[in-house]
Amino acid sequence: MSRPPSTRIAAATALVTVLAVSGCSAEAAGDGGRQKIDFGYIADYNQAGLLAIAEKRGLWAEHGIDASYKVFTDGPTQITALGAGNLDFGTIGPGATWLPASGKATVVAVNQLGRADHVVALPGKGIRTVADLRGRKVAVPEGTSGEMILTLALEKAGLSKKDITIVPMAPPTAVSALASRQVDAAALWYPLLSTVDKRVPGLVDLAESADFEDEFVFPSSIVAAPATVKERPELVTEVDQVLQKANDFRHTNRDESVSITASFLRLDEEAVAADARNTRSLSTSDLVRKTQDGTVGRWFGALQRFFTSTGKLDRTAPVEEFYAGDLYAEAAGAR
Fold first, then answer.
1. Beta strands 165-168 and 35-42: pairing type?
2. What are the tens digits of pLDDT across the range 231-249?
3. What is the pTM of this model?
4. Domain range holding 167?
5. Total number of domains in the chain
6. Are strands 137-140 and 185-189 parallel, antiparallel or unpaired?
7. What is the pLDDT of residues 55-66, one digit of tens each?
8. CA 211/CA 208 separation, integer angstroms
């Protein structure tokens, strides 16, 4: 099984560029009947943890799968790669959920709930509240949870995007722009913001995911191309079972999962542990129960209503159109 690439931002950006121009080719079956898949991920505890555990514990081999990994800096880029046939599965945050809801991908599993998104401002700029962002330059990666948290924060403060100067940037570029003081504020997530913290101590925290938990939860998800789910449901079931085993290990072995993920990402364990504190894991049985009782549907429904209000979606869709919850529940029952 291939080892993950370096997770430094520069390397991540380079890999995305290589993917865009060269692509990759998934195979239904490899040597000895083993299925080969390419799995995209974002290089943090939330998005990479299940893959790290699956590799370390040999879960892919148990299910006759050879998995290779490709690092990305955001969810929308992975969904583009899915659509181009350059990726089989990927990981996205809540801010990219509008893409599955619009038919660009299918959610095959809910990962966990995140609390990592923040709107922050540089110190010494006279920005103490979201209202103080009026007329300021704010870096934000479009189509991500960063854009989502910024929109929610502005609305709560009685502002809109027209009241600020939005500077659309890829996540690594936004980090650099904020750290070099080219913008006044940014809407990003940890652990990316940890890089800025080291260079610019005293960032002013204006808003965060936890501020909106009464109305929204922030689920990250595993996605596949809709055609994969329709034409190869048996593969999706096997992948779901691997993810479910990894998920239950992560849920009950937090410290060890941090250590495994840090090794997979080649990052400092303390930094990954800090990143893990921005997440809330759920057991597989809980996720199945929440799928069947409509809780997950309500999570995705609330996100869709938000995306229609911001113009990302033209309409809301029945959750079962883009979340293969039946396959997820069947996979759990067959384990």
1. unpaired
2. 999 999 999 999 999 999 9
3. 0.81
4. 117-212
5. 2
6. parallel
7. 999 999 999 999
8. 6
